[in-house]
Design brief:
The structure is a single chain. With 266 residues, the protein is α/β, with parallel strands linked by helices. It has a single domain, classed as P-loop containing nucleotide triphosphate hydrolases (Rossmann fold, 3-Layer(aba) Sandwich). The protein is 29% helix and 18% strand. The protein contains seven helices and nine strands, in the order E-H-E-E-H-E-E-H-H-E-H-E-E-E-H-H. A six-stranded mixed β-sheet has the order 5-6-7-3-8-9, sandwiched between helices. Strands 2-1-4 form a three-stranded antiparallel β-sheet, covered by helices on one side. Strand 8 and strand 9 form a beta hairpin. Helix 4 runs parallel beside helix 5 and helix 6 crosses helix 7. The radius of gyration is 19 Å and the shape is globular.
Length: 266
């Protein structure tokens, strides 16, 4: 059955942009529900997905559709499928799905006349070519790398470049989309990212993040959707697989590894 709007009570948010209120699938235009990406349960059951005015998380196993949904939202908002701001026009390989053509972005009526003034789409799998594109754009800028700490991104590690993006490039009052931003970050750096996310929220920004990180998911009052075999549904932080399995592992790693390795014994 399609997702119904009333199934998703949105918690009272902290100060945030609230520029987008929902993502809607134009179900009547879908040509074939048996082909990708429409055969993914998270897409097949989608009708209208409300977005938190501050932070919305998408979680789920690899291949569950969270990155597909986030990518489609990004392209619908005018970003390159490989990331960047709206004025980044590059592609190393055109592999994004057609889902964006079947989505409608519903804007928040409370924010009428108050559209976002900044935006950025970051995905872990295309971070290297994105940073290469940043260097190509910034080399001839009046103040080269002025928004990147004064240094080319490739002069930094992946994690350092991402933190520089958060602290220097993102201006606030924007819509920011992150796909697995924790990929190159240590635990300590993930904690640092939480403070930067909160700073962006305080600057009236709205964020949609696909992640496996139980640390990032702990951001207070966020709305979390889980993509699974039964489709897309809201989930409490403590009930996410990322949180539950990490807690189980840390509680008794030896016991869990004994169970895992025992399954491989003849």
């Amino acid at each position: 059955m399609p997702i119904q709007l009333e199934l998703f009570p949105v918690p009272e948010p902290p100060p945030g942009g609230g520029f987008l209120s929902a993502l809607r699938l134009k179900r009547e235009t879908v040509p074939d529900w048996n082909v990708y990406p429409f055969n993914i349960p998270a897409v097949r059951t989608l009708d209208e997905l409300p977005l938190h005015r501050a932070v919305t998380f998408l979680v789920g196993e690899n291949g569950s559709g969270k990155s597909t949904l986030l990518e489609a939202l990004a392209v619908r908002l005018g970003h390159s499928a490989e990331g960047g701001s709206r004025n980044y026009r590059f592609s190393t390989r055109d592999t994004h799905s057609v889902l964006c053509d079947f989505l409608t972005v519903v804007r928040d009526g409370r924010a009428a006349g108050d559209r976002e003034t900044d935006g950025f789409f970051l995905r872990a799998e295309s971070f290297y070519p994105l940073m290469s594109q940043v260097e190509a754009y910034e080399t001839d800028a009046p103040v080269p790398f002025g928004e990147w700490g004064g240094r080319p991104p490739h002069d930094r590690s992946h994690g350092e470049a991402f933190l520089t993006l958060l602290t220097n490039r993102l201006r606030g009052h924007g819509v920011y989309l992150f796909d697995e931003p924790e990929a190159a970050l240590s635990v300590q750096r993930q904690l640092a990212v939480l403070t930067h996310l909160h700073a962006l929220v305080r600057q009236r920004s709205q964020l949609v993040i696909a992640t496996h990180s139980p640390i990032l998911l702990a951001y207070p009052d966020a709305l979390i959707y889980e993509c699974g075999p039964d489709g897309l549904h809201p989930v409490a932080y403590d009930d996410t697989d990322a949180c539950r399995l990490t807690r189980t592992f840390l509680h008794d790693p030896t016991r869990l590894m004994d169970q895992l390795f025992a399954e491989d014994e003849p």
